[in-house]
């Protein structure tokens, strides 16, 4: 059984993909967030404008048009089918690295008040810069990393109160 994904585009269109179908695309990375995609005889210019790993949502521009894309994998679909809450909805005090990467910038300091959704740091992973956002309103309790640090997945980056 091949791994499958469900995507929702602009909350109006749903698409299902398998890992094999994604691998069959001819994708060339032109720069940090820009890609050229060839699907059959169709050519697409794609730019990743914004990412939110906690909500698995992305803003992508394809051939000049912007799209809000949400991606669900098999586990997300099972959780939804069972009517359970997704763990990312739980508001935690620790902000952890969603994947291994390099800390490019830190936009907060200890004692600073932040609002839910505020960009708090930038993590470079797989040649893409990803802005991590505050999961809730609060005050920064501690910053465990600094610019230039290499981090592993689930490393605590920032603690909030």
UniProtKB/TrEMBL annotation:
<dbReference type="InterPro" id="IPR011053">
    <property type="entry name" value="Single_hybrid_motif"/>
</dbReference>
<dbReference type="InterPro" id="IPR001882">
    <property type="entry name" value="Biotin_BS"/>
</dbReference>
<dbReference type="Pfam" id="PF00364">
    <property type="entry name" value="Biotin_lipoyl"/>
</dbReference>
<keyword id="KW-0092">Biotin</keyword>
<dbReference type="InterPro" id="IPR000089">
    <property type="entry name" value="Biotin_lipoyl"/>
</dbReference>
<dbReference type="InterPro" id="IPR050709">
    <property type="entry name" value="Biotin_Carboxyl_Carrier/Decarb"/>
</dbReference>
<feature type="domain" description="Lipoyl-binding">
    <location>
        <begin position="86"/>
        <end position="161"/>
    </location>
</feature>
<protein>
    <submittedName>
        <fullName>Biotin/lipoyl-binding protein</fullName>
    </submittedName>
</protein>
């Amino acid at each position: 059984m091949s791994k499958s994904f469900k995507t929702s585009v602009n909350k109006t269109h749903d698409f299902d993909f398998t890992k094999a179908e994604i691998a069959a695309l001819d994708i060339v990375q032109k720069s940090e967030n820009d890609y050229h995609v060839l699907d059959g005889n169709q050519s697409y210019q794609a730019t990743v404008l914004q990412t939110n790993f906690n909500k698995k949502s992305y803003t992508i521009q394809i051939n000049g048009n912007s799209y809000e894309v949400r991606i669900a994998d098999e586990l997300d679909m099972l959780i939804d089918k069972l009517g359970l809450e997704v763990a990312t909805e739980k508001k935690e005090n620790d902000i952890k690295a969603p994947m291994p990467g390099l800390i490019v910038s830190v936009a907060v300091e200890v004692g600073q008040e932040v609002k839910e959704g505020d960009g708090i740091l930038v993590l470079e992973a797989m040649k893409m810069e990803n802005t991590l956002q505050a999961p809730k309103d609060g005050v920064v309790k501690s910053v465990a990393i600094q610019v230039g640090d290499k981090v592993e997945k689930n490393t605590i980056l920032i603690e909030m109160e």
